[in-house]
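Q: Joint fold for the lines below.
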Amino acid sequence: MTTTGDIESTSDGAPRDPRDRVERYQPTAIEPRWQARWADLRLYDTDLDDRSKPRFYLLTMYPYPSGALHIGHWYIKTPTDAIARYKRMHGFNVFLPIGFDAFGLPAENAAIKNNINPRDWTMANIEKMRGQLRSMGATFAWDHEVVTCDPEFYRWNQWMFLQFLKKDLAYRAVSPVDWCPNDGTLAREQVEGTDRVCWRCGAKVEKRELPQWYLGITDYADELLDFSGIDWPEPIKAMQTNWIGRSTGAEVAFTTAPSAHHAGGEELRVFTTRPDTLFGATFMVLAPEHELVATLTAPERKAEVDAYVAAAAAKTEIDRLSTDREKTGVAIGADAINPVNGARIPIYIADYVLGTYGTGAIMAVPAHDERDFAFAQAFGLPIVQVVMPPDGDPEADLAAAFTEHSPDEVMVNSGRFTGRKATDAWGEIVDWLGEQGKGEPAVTYRIRDWLISRQRYWGTPIPVIHCTDCGPVAVPEADLPVLLPETVDYRGSGDNPLTRDEAFLAVDCPQCGKAARRETDTMDTFIDSSWYWFRYLSPHFAEGPVDVDLVRDWTPVDQYTGGAEHAVMHLLYSRFFTKAMRDLGLADAREPFRRLFNQGQILGADGERMSKSRGNVEDPDALVARYGADAVRLYLMFMGPWDQGGPWSAGGISGPVKFLNRVWALTIDPHGREPGDQTGGALPAGEEEHDARDRMRAAAHRTLRDVTEDYEGFRWNTMVAKLMELSNLLVRYRGTSVAGLPEWDEAVRLLLLMLAPAAPHITEELWSRLAEARGEAWESIHVQRWPVVDEAAIVEQTREIPIQVNGKLRDRITVPAGISEIELEQIIMARDKVVAAIGEKQVARLIHAGGGRLVNIVLRG
RNA sequence: GGCGAAGUGGCGGAAUGGCAGACGCGGCGGUCUCAAACACCGCUGAGGGAAACCUCGUGUGGGUUCGAAUCCCACCUUCGCUACCA
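A: Joint structure:
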């Protein structure tokens, strides 16, 4: 270290900046050097078989290789790296893998545009992004990298699909599906917003009737509602719960009434969550696509009904909604019979009843359902109140549907149930229907099975062969992987080129041996992300998708970090896959991620989502080149709470930059003083050397205690603030007589250790220089143990106590720490300000609050 | 419409029943410098006052409490998700 401690000695020569004699902080010189050194030493390779330390599987959502990292990647990944480093300093064997979500449409679009293979485009991007990820100084276990477009990975997508087929967890069905002109078919949860657009490309989605492959996620609906044993953010659990949408109720069998054109007696089942309102059903509504519409429609109504059905079928969901909830429908000229009272009620079709939910038919109870109420009003249908508050009028005209369903409500106009509490009667009615074989308890879900077929090239081929005789036949496991053809003929079109690739298509049926055709759909890329963290453990394992022993030791993941935008997609699929894999004996945990943290999103300076088209994208490479990775890491952590995100503003980065410069100066030049320093190297007024030494120790250990808590809770912003506070104190003592004393050295050492996980390069550099100055051998700061708080150092001799009168701050006194309440009260009551604030009033009592932290004097009157 | 999150200085934010505004940005004044930049020191919620201090102040209105940014009730605003789910 180069320190002389005496700046006056330079002043007799030509005037010059005294700081020039000290080396300045140059992050761009330091950072690549340490990154290379860490890599050479294999400092962050994880030995997964090491049983001497507790394991910690830290996972962060893998990036899509779009071509460049953006600041959002830094926002999630650098604090995650800080967690890894912090946990290592606590003796954990930390596994922090990284990989690439390498299948997907952008590669295909690039291929069409530039007439190159999507693989080449993808792999070039990956190579570039690897370099960018390294520039973060993050401790990723690169030797476990997974790239999902590698056959070594996607063959196991195919293998698992075959296992799912055997268990009927994968199946093919023809049904109306959401079709995006760019991405092909989409799963239900991949269509967003009121105007029904594709989650990825934003194009409007239309309905198509197609044969498609599904995974039976609904089989696991109930288990997916159980979040016990995992520590996830409440909003995500709420979103998943809403998405799964479990409704308990009953299926009730209405029957068709005999009429001129129909014999009657046919069952019409409805699902209801309100069996207690059965007596109020005044009509019935079928979805236009309901299978019985054709047979039940009266001849004279046929033309109108057919027209309505055709119109509904032609309408996309967009159009259905654009009618702004105005109810439309047509009576079909047939009646149904209500099983509870034998009432004949007319049957309508209306598009507000969905064919895909429940039974596709409802009993309409206009008095107690807003939609039914609106329909009844529009069509002049009777409205009969059957549930009301205890003081209600059963014959009153309702202005709106009465949907309250609390223990107070009583039933009216309901035959033998009249006068009963509605909540009590709910179950009895279901039981009563059950005894007569006219209904039973039922549960329905909003969630649909996961549609995984995509009409795209750049994905995992679905391992199925279509034979004219045998139908769809699974590719034998021995024939896996079904490889994507290397050369692709796009002919400038956006179609799936597999459909034109005769070499790919032509194959013999594995069952009968006749000429057959391969399935050309590929899998939704969310399949890849549904289990990639299992593969990280053994990326080259050839005997199966996962090494079951490693999975047992290392999963579930201890901590997962990533965005909340995947709440009902990736984060739900992953839970499903884990449970399905468990049932295949591939995993033994029922949940994938023990703890989940959703960071916020970094927006552009304009407060909008960052996007190239808006021109508000912040380039992390440029920031790193200018300020260094440590400053960028620290600034992102310092911005605000991690789960909050917020608009980017480059201005604030100067704070962390200045902080790092001070840490640098404190460490390599403790005796130096800045040229404008007006303190003359003196301690703060009234402070003796021993006071200063105590203060440094106390501050360092109090900071350690608080910062440790902040690390545990991922509260980076306050963590950085507290380190800044400590460094501010040391800056004040720099160049004074206490700089360089043991308490100073300890405070600097603790400051570096506490900062190390967040700013790994500068701390490593300074740590090495401290070792060098002491003539010790270098040992990385990142393999040091996290320091231990000395509670004795924090204990203070005196305390400052705020004094309130009637809750208003009136005075502050400094007293010895161990003072008794009686002594304290004597001092307080003698204070001028307190006496003045009390005035003529009487003191009612004194409150010693918060364990002696504050005193409040309460006055009478 | 439903579910969820959040409203605090000029700005990002801290404080989750006990001193509101930690820490930082920006701003103002000073030191250093021939000068500027950097760096360093001080001030910086609003109003009043020469000052000591006083009053007001955490979206709005009420409530609980000795004491409320924090807890409760009602409302307003913003953001995210959802969208006729019977």
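Q: Anything notable?
A: Chain A has 27 helices and 33 strands. Residues 1-19 of chain A have pLDDT under 50 and may be disordered.
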